[in-house]
Amino acid sequence: MKRFDTTVTSIRPVAEGCFELRFDWPDDAGVPAPGRFFTIKAGGRYDPVLRRPFAFSGYAPPVAGERDGEAAFIFQVRGRGTEFLAALKPGDPLDVLGPLGRGFGKPPRGTRPMLVAGGIGMGPMLYLAAALGADAKAGLCEAPMLVIGVRSAGFIPDVELPAGTVICTDDGSSGFHGTVTEWLAGFDPGLPPVFYACGPAPMMAAVDRLAEVRSAPFEAALEQWMACGVGACAGCAVALKSGRYIKTCVDGPVYDGRLVDWGAAL
Amino acid sequence: MSGTSSGTARGMVPAKLDLTVRIGDLVMQNPVGVASGTFGYGEEYEDLVDIDCLGALYTKAVTPEPRPGNPAPRLADTPAGMLNSIGLANPGLDAFIADKLPRLRARRCAVIVNVAGGTEDDYLRVLDALEAQDGIVGYEINISCPNVAHGGLSFGTDPVQVERLTRRLVDAVGSRAMAGAEARCDRLAGRGRRPLIVKLSPNVTDIAAIAKAAEAGGAVALSCINTLVGMVIDIKTKRPVLAMGSGGLSGPAIRPVGVAMVYKASHAVSIPVIGLGGISDADDALQYLLAGAVAIQVGTAIFSRPEAPLEILAGIREFMEREGIEQVADIRKLLR
C-alpha cells in the first residue's frame, strides 16, 4: 500500500455516462490483484474530502525498458467526484492510494467460475474474467463464464469482452431480456458453480439465493462509501446476517457473499 | 525542512526551534497530533505515515465493552466535509489492552487514549484498567460524541455534569513512576500524573461555560472541538443518507467554527487548549495556534492525504523560522 502521484494515460467513454480511465501504476506500489481497489483524491485541496474508491478493471504489468505498469478502472458519473474524473485528460496528475483490501480467491478445480456483473459493478468482474481466462488457458481452472446485466444496450461497455459473455438487458434492447439472475436460473453450468459477483444490492441478494439453492460458494465484491480505506475509521461498515459488521476496506471488498446481510444494504 | 530558512521580513532566524508542548506533566515532542477516530490505533497507517515523528496519537475511543457501532451507511459526503456516524465502534477495553496497546507502547510519540462511555461508571472502568498499564501518557475524555444515544454528547452539554464527571475521573488518575514510552515522551522523567484532557462539543450554546466547568473539575487540558451535528437527505429516496439520520460533521467546512471556539475557550480558562476541527494544512493549524491553542490535532484531512500531519509540522517549523519564533508556545502571542 502506497500513496503516490501518478499520471493519466488515457480516458475514454465506454457506455452511457461511463468512462474507462487508465493510469501509470508504479512497480513499487504492489500488484493490483482482481477484486482489490484503490482510492483517488478526486478534486481540489479542500473538496471533496472523501477519496473515491474504485476496483481495478484491468492491469498491465511493466515491460522492462519499454513501458511502465498500467492500471485501469471503469466509473459512472454520479456526483462531483466522478465529474472531476470525467474531465481529466491524458497527462493529468492523479493522486492514488493503493492497492487496498482483499481480492478474489481462486476457484477450486472442477468448478465453473460464474462471474456476475451488474451495471457499474462490471469493472472488477472484467478484470477477474481476464485473469481466470488466462488461468483456464494454463489449465489451472475451468473456463469462467461472464454474465453482465445492464439497463439497456447503451450501457453495454465498449471493451473487449471474453468470448461467450452473456449480456442481459432490463428492457430487452440487447441480448437476454431480463435480469442476470433470471438468466442464471435457466442455465446449467455443467459443473458445480462458484459465484463471483459485483453489482447493486438486489442483484447480490438474488445471487445469494441462487448460491444457497445450488450450495455454491459466493465471493461478493462489496461497494460502500469509505473514508480512510485502511481499516482505521470503521466508516465503510457492511452488516452481516449474524448482526456483526465488517469493514469493506480491509475485511473486503471481496467477502463471503453468503454471510452478508443484503437486506440491510437495500 | 528546518534551520536553513533565509532571512525574513521579521528578522533573525532562531538558532534552535523548540516545538515541544507541555500539558501538565506530559511533554510532547511537537504540537501535531492525529485525532481520535481518524487514525485507528496507529497500526493501520504504518505503511503511510512515520508515526514516531508525530507529536501525539489519540486512539480511537475505548469503551468498557466491545461496541459493534451504528448501522450502515455511516458516512456521507458534504461540501468541504463529511458526516460520520460510526457509533464508537471499538473492540472494548480488554481487547484494546491485549491487542492494541502492545504496539502502541513501542511508539515514540505521545500515546493518548480516548475514553468514552454511556455512564460515569463506564469512563471510570476504562480509566481504572488503563491506570494499571504502562505506555500511555494521557487520557482524552470524550464527553462530546454526537453519535451515541446515551452519554457522550449528553454529558458534554451540561456544565454541572461536565464538572462532576471530570472531578470523578481526575480523582481516579494517580501519580505514577514514568517508564518506557511514557518516560520518552515525558522528558521531565520521574513521577507524574497522566493528564486528563476533556474533549469538548461545539454543539452547545456557550463553550466557555463548559470549558470552565471542565477546568473547575480538574481537567489538565481541553480538546476543542468535536464534530458538529449535521444531516444530509437524499432527495431521490427522501431519506437521510446516514442510517442513524444525523451524524458528526468534520472537515475544512468546520474550521472557522473550531477556530472561534478555541479562541473563546482558551480565553475563558487558564489550562491549555488543544485545537482541532478541519485542519488540512499548516495555515489552518497556525490559525488555531494563533487563536490560543497550544497544540493541534489533524483528523479528517488524513483521509484525504495521509501525509497531512507531518506536512503540517514542517509548515509550522517554516512559519516559526520566518517569524523568528523559537518556542511554538509563543505563536499565540502574535495574535493582534
Search tags:
heterodimer; A: 266 residues; alpha/beta; Elongation Factor Tu (Ef-tu), domain 3; Rossmann fold; 5 helices; B: 336 residues; TIM Barrel; 8-stranded parallel β-barrel; 4-stranded antiparallel sheet; 18 strands; disordered N terminus
Radius of gyration computed on alpha carbons of chain A: 18 Å
The neighbouring-strand order within the major sheet of chain B is 3-4-7-8-11-12-17-18
- The strand count of chain A comes to 16
CATH superfamily of the largest domain in chain A: Nucleotide-binding domain of ferredoxin-NADP reductase (FNR) module
Please, how many helices of chain A? 5
Tell me the overall shape of chain A: globular
CATH superfamily of chain B: Aldolase class I
Q: What is the CATH architecture assignment of chain B? A: Alpha-Beta Barrel
Q: What fraction, in percent, of the residue positions of chain A are helical?
A: 10-25%
Please describe the biggest sheet of chain B, giving its number of strands, its sense, and whether it closes into a barrel: 8 strands, parallel, barrel
Number of helices of chain B: 10
What characterizes the major β-sheet of chain A? Answer: 7 strands, antiparallel
Q: How are the strands of the largest sheet of chain A arranged? A: 4-3-7-1-2-6-5
- The fold-level CATH name of chain B is TIM Barrel
Highest CATH level, the class of the largest domain in chain A:
Alpha Beta
| Text of the CATH class of chain B | Alpha Beta
| Helix/sheet category of chain B | alpha/beta
Determine the mean pLDDT of chain A. Answer: 95
Mean pLDDT of chain B: 90
- How many domains of chain A? The number is 2
Q: Can you describe this structure?
A:
- The complex is a heterodimer of chains A (266) and B (336).
- Chain A has 266 residues and is an alpha/beta fold.
- Chain A is 17% helix and 33% strand.
- Chain A is built from 5 helices and 16 strands.
- Chain A has helices at 80-86, 122-137, 180-185, 201-213, 262-265, and strands spanning 2-15, 18-25, 37-40, 52-55, 58-60, 69-76, 93-100, 112-118, 145-150, 166-169, 176-177, 193-198, 218-221, 237-239, 245-247, 254-256.
- In chain A, a hairpin with a 2-residue loop joins strand 1 and strand 2.
- Chain A is globular and about 50 Å long.
- With 336 residues, chain B is α/β, with parallel strands linked by helices.
- Chain B has a single domain, classed as Alpha-Beta Barrel (TIM Barrel), CATH 3.20.20.70.
- In chain B, helix 6 (207-216) packs across helix 7, helix 7 packs parallel to helix 8 and helix 8 crosses helix 10 (308-323).
- Residues 1-9 of chain B have low confidence and may be disordered.
- Chain A binds chain B through residues 1-3, 41, 45-51, 79, 81, 95, 97, 224-239, 243-245, 250, 264-265, and chain B through 37-40, 44-45, 47-48, 60, 68-82, 84, 86, 89, 251-252, 280-281, 300-307.
